[in-house]
Amino acid sequence: MKPVVMGLVAMLWLGAPGASAAASVETLQGLRVVRLSGTPYEMGRQHGSALREEVQACVRELRSYFRSYLKVPGLRALIVAWWLDTAWRQARPFVPPRYLEELRGLSDAAQVPLRELTRMHAIPDRTYSCANFAAWGAATADGRLLHLRNLDWNIRAGLQRHAVVFVVHPEGQRAYVSMGWAGFIGVLTGVNEAQLSIGQVGAETTDVTYRGEPMAFLMRRVLEEAGDVDSAARVVQEARRTVGVNYVVADSKARRAIAMETTRRYFRAFEANDRAEQGVDYARPMADAVLRADTAIDPVIRERQIASRGNPRQPGLEPPGGSAYTTRYVGQAEGLAHAYGTLDVAGAQAIARAIAPDSNVQSVIFAWPEAWVANAQGHTPAAQSPYQQLPIAELLAAGPE
């Protein structure tokens, strides 16, 4: 391991027959980094053995958080279980088998009931908000690509206490880094060995189903299967999708990114300064940059949106409003315009701080070969917390332990 990758390394041995020997846990710049490799079941066991107490705590705290919403004490547990189990039961036939095997290994090693883990993985399709942009070329100080991803969910749920950076080398798939949490095998923010990064924004719509591949698994498949922006778009377009999601996927080596707007049935990809955006009054297109919050630009998708004060019950397109549009979308656009041509990592962090709501759980800036990661600290939003630099290219190049 090169000198820049410093930290405490603990080797955690797994006793299961046929499992790979160990998972490593490192502390780098205050961030926990866990390396996983091998077959799906092996990776699940490594994850569960390395983080057993963390997985148990994360599952317990998420369950408690969702129950706290309900005002009928005797029925809270039953209602939350029904709400999440219903979504998972519909989605399960469309979850890639390798992820089901990994969940089984995680359950066995962490000593957490499998059903509790599947409930955890049903949550992302039932939540919304966030922000993403990618900028490069003429937009940045040195031409390299910067990809900002703010994850805005709910600090009160406590996910930030269980943040983990996973360096994953799946058997037969591309290696990737995921900025996630103990017990979670999906991806909401990540980058792969081909320098392809992805982030998402939940964008509520009436064109929705849970009989499809959950978004967090679809994003993981992008990192495992795609080597460039076009192949990433094919993975998303050809998937059996579930809920409304806007994605930004960026290729650092090609200095190119696209925004993808999706619902259950509809898909539209946008390039930088896309002609289709130039004809939309509320859009903010620009050269060498793409950006998204909840608001859809495509009129077919916008007509079906509830996000950004859309009303599908009324004909025509409503002007977008609310903080999803005025703060997260317009705020990104104004920040990019102000820093255009001089944007660097510090400038991207400044934009992240300006647009982050109190619910900002995580903020990540990809700038290959590094990434800057901030997690919420207590009730302080992530973008207001210190960013820690990670040598992601070095972590991926090191290979499995």
- What overall geometry do the principal axes of the alpha carbons give? globular
Number of helices: 12
Low-confidence stretches: 1-19
Number of strands: 16
Mean pLDDT: 91
Quick description:
With 401 residues, the chain is α+β, with helices and mostly antiparallel strands. Helices cover 32% and strands 24% of the residues. Helix 1 (40-50) runs parallel beside helix 4, helix 2 (52-68) packs across helix 3 (76-91) and helix 6 runs antiparallel to helix 7.
Can you walk me through this structure?
- With 401 residues, this protein is of the alpha+beta class.
- The protein is 32% helix and 24% strand.
- It contains twelve helices and 16 strands.
- The protein has helices spanning 40-50, 52-68, 76-91, 97-110, 114-122, 215-225, 229-238, 275-278, 299-302, 323-339, 345-355, 392-397, and strands at 9-13, 22-28, 31-38, 131-135, 146-152, 163-170, 176-181, 189-192, 196-202, 245-251, 256-262, 267-270, 289-292, 360-367, 370-375, 388-390.
- The strands form two sheets. A ten-stranded mixed beta sheet has the order 1-2-3-6-7-8-9-10-11-12.
- Strand 8 (189-192) and strand 9 (196-202) form a beta hairpin.
- The chain is globular.
- 52% of the residues are buried.
What topology emerges from the helices and strands here?
Elements: E1 9-13, E2 22-28, E3 31-38, H1 40-50, H2 52-68, H3 76-91, H4 97-110, H5 114-122, E4 131-135, E5 146-152, E6 163-170, E7 176-181, E8 189-192, E9 196-202, H6 215-225, H7 229-238, E10 245-251, E11 256-262, E12 267-270, H8 275-278, E13 289-292, H9 299-302, H10 323-339, H11 345-355, E14 360-367, E15 370-375, E16 388-390, H12 392-397
Parallel strand pairs: 3-6
Antiparallel strand pairs: 1-2, 2-3, 4-5, 4-13, 5-14, 6-7, 7-8, 8-9, 9-10, 10-11, 11-12, 14-15, 15-16
